[in-house]
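Batch manifest, entry 17 of 40.
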Amino acid sequence: MIVLCTYPLTTRTAADVFDVAHVHEFAIACRHGNWETFETPETKQTKAELTELKEELEQRVREQTYELVTANEELRREVDQRKETENRLQNIIDTIPAMVATTKADGSADYVNQRWLDYYGLSLDDLRDWRWRTVIHRDDEPRVMTEWLAALSNGMPLATEFRMRRFDGEYRWFLVRTVPQRDEHGNILKWYAAGYDIEDQKKAIEGLRQSEQKFHELVDLIPAAVYTCDRSGRITYYNMRAVELWGREPAPDDTHLRFCASVRLYNREGRLIPHDDSPMAHVLEKGLPVLNQEVIMGRPDQSRITVLANIAVLRNKEGEVIGAINCFQDITELKRTENALQKALQEIEALRDQLYKENLVLKEEIVRSSVFEEIVGTSPALQAVLAGVAQVAPTDTTVLITGETGTGKELIARAIHKRSRRSSSPFVSVNCAAIPQSLIASELFGHEKGAFTGAAQRRLGRFELAEGGTIFLDEVGDLPGETQIALLRVLQEREFERVGGHQKIRADVRVIAATNRDLEAAIAAGTFRSDLFYRLNVFPIAIPPLRERKEDIPLLVEHFVGRYASKAGKKIRSIKKKTLNVLESYSWPGNIRELQNVIERSVIVSETENLSVDESWLSQKASRPQPVSDTLSKRPGAQVKKMIEAALAETRGRISGPSGAAAKLGIPPSTLESKIRSLKINKRRFKTVYRPKRHKAPKTG
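Output type: structure tokens
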């Protein structure tokens, strides 16, 4: 504040006055007419402070100016970089295969990249605002505009397909996607659009669609039903044949499990298959195909059909399961026909088996009529065997017949069968040594179709053919180990299974076995089972060799001469005595079969009514006859008792003498007496027993 004062005041006084008045600067008019300016001390101090503040402010201005200049330079550099980046992005956008454009918030175009401009053959000005509509195919333009206006209205992204005109006038399909750009408040600033040429994909898809349509038409023509499922079990395709067999059409979102709830599946036994246990469910779960599986399908109309299902697994290129395809056929009529054929085949099989059995019975009748005619002889040894036959025949006991080759073991077995309660049923004979070991099980127990190579049809075994009757196992000692086990099971459990089968078959058969081997030695050697031996050896019958019953040779010669002379149409009236002596002195290692062959040959070459035998036909290496006493000592006590009783019956209880029982048995009378006592035989009861009627002895010349 400046005060002008004209009063003549001293400077000091004025200063004091103005200081009181808080005046910092004043001027005084002096006497000489000049003005003098005066400052108070406070003013001076304030000016100094202002000067200092001014300098500080100027320094700050200089610093901020420098910072602004620096920031401006950085901003200019950043703007230049952004322009450079924008240019690079512009170049990239103009050269990428995709077509890029932007529109304002109202949908009018404000930018189109060079790629799109080149496609159109137009400039950006030609497409600005809404002029871009002119390149859309007229058939697609109404739909595209409707969709675009809806997107502008709701602010949602849009993806649509339509055709756009190329510079040469061709229209091609494009997929255009648009997304909005929003500010921090959610307001749309502009829209970005990208277009992709999908003309080739469209053509490929159309080609696939046409191929798929043709495939579906072909699949609809085949008689089989076909449907596919994806990994989740949703039914993705089915042909019309499937609808016919199902009896209804699946819903669009039907899964296999849901659909199975209305189309029930049953197994061949008629039990309901749970939905999650169906063949298709197994394929989708385990990734394994199903081949030729028969199932019964229950349809909505309550009818049932039998179908044959084949299900293949569908996989992607990585091998992952993506679904399955089921091809199934209605085989109901085929099954009916098959069942009818099977029934007819079973009837034919039954008839064939019946004819086979009847044939066996007829053969048995023929053989049966001459069984006892074949058992010729009155020797004590033979009578002991026949006594055993009479005892065991009425029972079902298993019999083991032992004896050398040619002693007539099968004749004894037939005699047992003829006198049993099974005589009206078949007698089936099996020579175990004559059948290959690989086929013996099939021969005895039969086999199922396909059980082994060459098994073209089911075949009954000998045990089935002998049902209700008797099976004779000759040479049982030659059975292989596996078959011995199966035979043991038959004897123990009375049941067996056919080769290749699982059904147990009951065996109502009496078993008679025979062998010329020493089974106890075979057991020791490990070639025959001891448990089977004990099962077979319930009632043993040992047939003596011909050398132990020489007194039967004349009767046997007469029997065979009569048979073969009749066959040859010759008359043999007598047999030379020398011939009989030769025959009786021979040891007959081949037993009765060898004697039979010698007589047949002699009858054939005989030119007179007087029969003779060429001694050179008899084996020169025949073993020395074994005394009856030797074999008697080796026989079981029961057989020895029967042989002694037979000899006592023949001699009417006489023990000593040339015609006594001791002489016939080849043992001393004292030994025979000792055996009679030890075996508790009542010899007195044979005093009234008459000798059986003997065959008429042939005349000797």
